[in-house]
Write a structure and sequence with these properties.
The chain is of the alpha/beta class.
Length: 422
């Protein structure tokens, strides 16, 4: 392999980067810190600070309850329509609501109720554990009649598309997977899986949490039935920001949320005693939305729409490819293995490095080297490459500092005992 490993080369890549100016649209308080965890919590957009100040002081402080009639009540729909543009969805199919797990519950239960005669749910062991817990909870609530088939990865990174197709049969009610897998960054062929599932009469639910804002998503073109995703990763919505959900338009008349609440009612302010589900996507709302969080999150979405997902994906590919090249030359000889697919069309925008001492290396990076990645069991150091604010120099510095942690044996200073939050 013949690549330029110099810092100067990274600087040249930054000089040629058409998105480099967007870095300054985010809050930075430490010029030396390398933030590589945007796939877990996105950075704070400057405009969000200004918007939250306005919401709190003017809309809440001055207008008080009158703001519900100005822009608060419609905010889950308005912001949902913006997110729809990032996931390839036409109007009236996306709404901001609740957390990802609650939305997964609502959508999975809705799907299972639409296929009452079928008893099989297909997912994989790479899926985010909360998704798996939620599916187990659904099965429990429905009397334990459903078999949850968790497909195993052959190589630890991915479940082959054909293995997914082979598992789908005429008893399959629901196929639910993460479009981009949270540990390895593997990206499924969503179109092929969705189309085949439909041929067998099954419904499909995609978790887009590690995909939205990082890779192109085309829910309408895929023919997807349901989808959800969080907004605090690549959408930069802030910690615990509400999630979004998608229900294909032609399913909305027959699909019902299992949680009936007043915001999902046809006329919530009539305060009727019997629930009448709203028309369209609004029926998947339930309780009062967290307005400040919804409106704050909108600013990050606006930035992504301004840049455009194709430009973001182009830079993401350049960043991840550059990091893998540096990994091969510098880290692989130190006992690391790559925990992410090399194929561009099979990876999202985060990279995992695996090492037997991954946990302690991760701690040393945070505590001594001012690099912020995260750790995922059993040995994955994850680095999220967020195109709007991650630079090529950030990538170079990350590899350089990881190398120092290992060669200088800094990780030996840290305990093997896991902290509560990793």
């Amino acid at each position: 392999m013949n690549i330029d490993l110099s810092r100067d080369y990274a600087r040249k890549l930054d000089e040629a980067d058409e998105l480099s100016g967007y870095r300054q649209k985010f809050f930075h308080n430490d010029a030396d810190m390398i933030y590589m965890d945007g796939n877990s919590l996105g950075k704070l957009p400057i405009r969000t600070i200004e918007r939250v100040d306005q919401i709190v002081k003017e809309e809440w402080g001055t207008q008080l309850i009158r703001s519900w009639g100005i822009n608060w009540y419609q905010s889950p729909i308005v912001v949902g329509e913006k997110i729809a543009q990032l996931v390839g969805a036409g109007q009236g199919q996306v709404v901001v609501s609740d957390s990802t797990t609650i939305n997964l519950f609502k959508l999975a239960m809705s799907a299972l109720m639409l296929r009452p005669e079928r008893k099989k749910i297909i997912t994989d062991t790479l899926n985010f554990p909360s998704d798996l817990y939620m599916l187990q909870g659904c099965s429990h609530l429905l009397g334990g009649k459903h078999q949850i088939q968790m497909l195993e990865p052959a190589d630890g990174l991915r479940v082959d598309t054909q293995a997914v197709l082979d598992a789908i049969d005429l008893d399959t009610a629901l196929v639910t997977l993460s479009h981009v897998v949270f540990k390895s960054g593997y990206m499924y062929d969503a179109r092929t899986i969705t189309e085949y599932a439909h041929q067998k009469g099954a419904l499909v639910l995609w978790d887009l949490s590690h995909a939205v804002g990082a890779v192109p998503v085309e829910l309408d073109d895929w023919g997807a039935d349901f989808a959800t995703g969080c907004t605090y990763k690549y959408l930069n919505g802030g910690p615990g920001a509400p999630a979004f959900l998608y229900v294909r338009r032609d399913l909305q008349k027959e699909a019902l949320s299992p949680i009936w609440g007043w915001f999902g009612d046809r006329t919530p302010f009539s305060f009727g005693l019997d629930y009448k589900p709203a028309e369209g996507i609004q029926r998947f709302l339930c309780g009062t939305p967290p307005v400040v969080s919804v409106l704050a999150m909108e600013q990050g979405v606006d930035l992504l729409l301004e840049v455009g997902i194709q430009r973001l994906r182009k830079k993401s590919i350049l960043l991840t490819s550059y990091m893998i090249d540096l990994f091969d030359a510098i880290l692989a000889p130190l006992g690391f293995s790559l925990g992410t697919p090399r194929e561009v069309d099979q990876r999202g925008s985060h990279i995992s490095f695996r090492h037997a001492e991954g946990y302690r290396i991760n701690l040393a990076l945070i505590e001594e080297m001012n690099v912020i990645p995260d750790f995922r069991e059993p040995d994955n150091i994850r680095l999220g490459l967020t195109p709007m604010y991650t630079s090529f120099l950030d990538v170079w510095e990350s590899i350089n500092r990881i190398q120092r942690v290992v060669t200088e044996k800094r990780y030996l200073r840290f305990p093997e005992t896991r902290q509560t939050v990793t």
